[in-house]
Amino acid sequence: MITVTSMDAQNRFGQLLDTVQREPVTITRHGRTAAFIISPRDMQDLQDARRKRSAAIVALEGWSQKAVANALPASASLTDADVVELVKASR
Prior knowledge:
60% of the residues lie in helices and 16% in strands. The chain has helices spanning 6-11, 13-19, 40-70, 80-90, and strands at residues 2-5, 25-29, 32-37. The protein starts with a strand and ends with a helix.
């Protein structure tokens, strides 16, 4: 990933558009990261990852609700240490 200042980005914008097809570009302003420029393919990959993460969160929440509904009353009194010991014992 290359890094350029905001002034360089303004002056070399066309060149940066070509560069981002090969690697992302970081743009800094006053020494701090201000923006990233990425290719359309990288952006699509990022959006796909976000969709997968959202679907995984929904699935985990659904599983968690089912686990709570199916839990035995005695499980409410288990501590984290108890659960760790039960898992170790089951191995």
